Amino acid sequence: MRATDQGKRQLHLNLFLLSTGHHEASWRHPDASPQLATDFRYYERLARMAEQAKMDSIFIAEKYRLNKMTKYRVIPQLEAFTMLAALSAVTERIGLTATASTTYNEPFHIARKFASLDHISGGRTAWNIVTSTGDATARNFGKQNHLDHSLRYDRAHEFVEAAVKLWTGWSEDALLIDQEAGLYADMNRIKAADYEGKHLSVAGPLNLPRSPQGVPVLVQAGSSEAGRSFAARWAELVFTAQPSMESAVAFYTDLKDRLKLWGRRPEQLKILPGLITFVGDTEAEAKEKERELNELSASEYGLYNLSALLQTDLSDCPLDGPLPYERLPQLEQIQGQKARFQLYVNLAREEQLSIRELIIRTAGGRGHFTVAGTPIQIADTMQRWLEADAADGFNLMPPLLPTGLEDFVTKVIPELQNRGIYRTEYSGNTLRENLGLTELPATQLV
Predict the structure, then answer these.
(1) Chain-centre distance of CA 417, in angstroms?
(2) Which residue has the higher pLDDT, 76 or 118?
(3) How far is CA 438 from the centre of its chain?
(4) What is the dihedral of CA 227, 233, 239, 242, to 10 degrees?
(5) Which residues contact 298 (CB under 8 A, 6 or more apart)?
(6) For the purposes of burial, counting CB atoms within 10 Å of the CB of 222, is it exposed (0-12), middle (13-18) or buried (19 or more)?
(7) SS (HEC) of the chain
(8) What is the pLDDT of residues 54-95, one digit of tens each?
(9) CA distance 371 to 279
(10) Which residues, other chains included, contact 146 with Cβ-Cβ below 8 Å and sequence gap of 6+?
(11) pTM for the structure as a whole
(12) pLDDT greater than 90 at residue 216
């Protein structure tokens, strides 16, 4: 870190990897390579680019079903643990964040996978904790219906509690490795989890020594009331969708305040809103890039996704008319993404968007904040959010890959570094060190 950086608050950046990019029409762009969606070398190049830019981590989302609209978009992706294990071998410092569901896994299985990845990577893992969505997912695991929203979060609390017991069951000095005496481990320093909850139970101990980080960085992305409560207890990194700085400030303040209920301090949680950037040498060029992708959008795909999110069939509605608000379910009736449902409805109402306009408005980032401008304009925006306590950094979601990432890395990153608000070198070897999360929240040591 340069001397000029001392005392300045630093931005954290995570790269959210998604095939050809986050814009729904990215795969149709001439610069996209949809045929490489399952090619490891493609993701290796992106990961190396992010590491060269000194980003904190890369993140791979995970879904356990095939979207019906694969007809209109590149959706298939490689399994997250397999992908990140391979990427750990071709990177050195960047963090590796994998999604794993607490609804369709068991604590021992997930704890062992993350401990293994943490060992393989030298302490660079993070767990994006999700409860999954949809009956289609449930049927892939032999169940007819997805669990109720509140029940999913009850199970999630137990799941994380059990996993942490497994990870911390091995003390740091449990390994003796005394070859002369023939003693490998001190069994008195290895504790069984012996966890019994309402929904889950696990004996333990984990059959793997404590990993470099002890516990992977715990990440959460739900912004509903239940999601925020969960984040206040467990999360160390939060990904969130906020369409404006004002909404981001409100979310940031609310979530940081909730930490007090668990005896946690604000610095023990980093909040990274999603950020979609269209970078141009001029503002007109940047807006042209955005317009070009929007014009490639398939209305059938957008209409299907919007109907699914709002849990209302919109196929009989005129695209240039308003949402049929009277037909939409109440928030408490939503079994999927409650916060995203509310975000879309609020966007449509506040900006008086037609169905077509709402589809286009969310095509690039599904309600995440979008900015099209020059590197200076984008850096100005990011700095304003940081200084206004709207964010501790951003979850970067390039609309088009690889060019959207290349533009950001070569043009925006240097501008942030010149301002002294973004690192020029990694500060540590583990993800926890680079995020400034070296101390585990007391509530996690259950």
Answers:
(1) 24
(2) 118
(3) 20
(4) 60
(5) 24, 25, 72, 73
(6) buried
(7) CCHHHCCCCCCEEEEEECCCCCCCCHHHCCCCCHHHCCCHHHHHHHHHHHHHCCCCEEEECCCCCCCHHHHHCCCCCCCHHHHHHHHHCCCCCCEEEEEEECCCCCHHHHHHHHHHHHHHHCCCEEEEEECCCCHHHHHCCCCCCCCCHHHHHHHHHHHHHHHHHHHCCECCCCEEEECCCCEEECHHHECCCCEECCCCEECCCCCCCCCCCCCCEEEECCCCHHHHHHHHHHCCEEEECCCCHHHHHHHHHHHHHHHHHHCCCHHHCEEEEEEEEEECCCHHHHHHHHHHHHHCCCHHHHHHHHHHHHCCCCCCCCCCCCCCHHHCCCHHHCCCCHHHHHHHHHHHHHCCCCHHHHHHHHHCCCCCEEEEECHHHHHHHHHHHHHCCCCCEEEECCCCCCHHHHHHHHHHHHHHHHCCCCCCCCCCCCHHHHHCCCCCCHHHCC
(8) 999 999 998 888 877 777 778 768 999 999 999 999 999 999
(9) 8
(10) 103, 132, 133, 134, 135, 137, 138, 152, 335
(11) 0.88
(12) yes
Residue corresponding to tokens 């408490």 = 332
CB atoms within 10 A of CB 431: 28
Placement of tokens 């715990």 in the chain? 218
